[in-house]
Design a protein that fits this description.
With 306 residues, the protein is α/β, with parallel strands linked by helices. It is built from twelve helices and eight strands. Helix 7 packs parallel to helix 8.
Length: 306
């Protein structure tokens, strides 16, 4: 089955967009804000928090970046109006980082200030390693400007992450800790599965030792077990940390974490720039791609009673 899954993933770039959309629909709330709103409302009803992300990985102009900014302002207004328990996550390339540092900084400040005016929170997402220095620099500048409603993401696969934890420790940042999914060279990132796991555990312990609030973002069962052990050893209160998962991935495991009394936040992407995100998510998780493809074929052949 793994061979079939990987074959599906290799074929994805040649698959028609409607088919990719069918394969990836469990990962994405939908193209419109109302889709994200109803998804978050449902998650809140299950005792889960949310982080809304406006998809925008194909930004090539200042006008497109400005449109993403306006979309985030609409998200904050909607969250406030509907009483939703959700923050947002922003990708800096969607705010124009590749077009210019100053442009991105101005756009990010607009988003963070609007969030602050509404008592909301902005997570600066982390992309490939070419953006890491600028991402952390922008985070520091916002904190120096007095913005407390902003956090960052660190990726355990990057060899630099422990050093970044030490450099940020004085700020006691709110950090989303994930493995990382980008293809990086060996001198930049750990390549072996167990090495990434070990780096994750070291980074989590270092962040908690520094008094940081950590969003423990993983679907890895071993890491979930290790994280619960480390949380217990640090005698953390429920409000001192949270687990984080992606929309549509291991929902039952997430339900179990909530039942155990942990805070759980679900990442909820939406928007019309869904195609690049879909390819990346499905390439990250070939088993899901294969499973949904099999389900789709089964429905077409009438095996599922459709």
């Amino acid at each position: 089955m793994a061979i079939f899954d990987r074959a599906i993933v290799r074929l994805l770039p040649a698959v028609p967009r409607p088919v990719v959309q069918r394969l990836s629909e469990r990962y994405i709330a939908g193209p419109e804000l109302k889709d994200a709103r109803e998804t978050v409302r449902g998650l809140n009803g299950q005792g889960k928090l949310a982080t809304i992300d406006v998809l925008g990985e194909e930004i090539t102009t200042e006008e497109e970046a400005a449109a993403i900014v306006r979309a985030y302002l609409d998200v904050f207004a909607d969250i406030e109006r509907c009483g939703l328990d959700s923050g947002v996550s922003v990708k800096l390339t969607a705010l124009g980082l590749k077009l210019g540092y100053d442009l991105c900084r101005d756009n990010l400040r607009t988003v963070v200030r609007d969030a602050a005016s509404r008592g909301n929170f902005v997570r600066i997402d982390m992309e490939d390693s070419s953006t890491t220095d600028d991402s952390l620099r922008l985070y520091r500048e916002l904190r120096e400007d007095g913005h407390e409603n902003v956090g960052v993401v660190l990726q355990a696969m990057l060899r630099r992450t422990l050093a970044d934890v030490a450099a940020l420790a004085e700020l006691k940042p709110s950090v989303r800790l994930c493995k990382g999914i980008y293809v990086e060279p060996p001198d930049v990132a750990y390549q072996e599965f167990e090495a990434v796991r070990a780096s994750y555990v070291r980074a989590l312990e270092a962040l908690l030792d520094a008094g940081c609030y950590v969003g423990i973002a993983t679907h890895d069962e071993w890491l979930l077990s290790e994280a619960r052990r480390i949380v217990a050893e640090h005698e953390l209160r429920r409000e001192d940390y949270e687990f984080q998962m992606l929309l549509g991935v291991q929902a039952r495991r997430g339900d179990a974490l909530v039942a155990e009394g942990h805070r759980l936040r679900i990442y909820v992407p939406f928007g019309r720039h869904w195609y690049a995100y879909s390819l990346r998510r499905l390439q990250e998780n070939p088993r899901i791609a294969g499973y949904i493809a099999s389900d789709t074929v089964g429905r077409l052949l009438g095996r599922n009673g459709a």
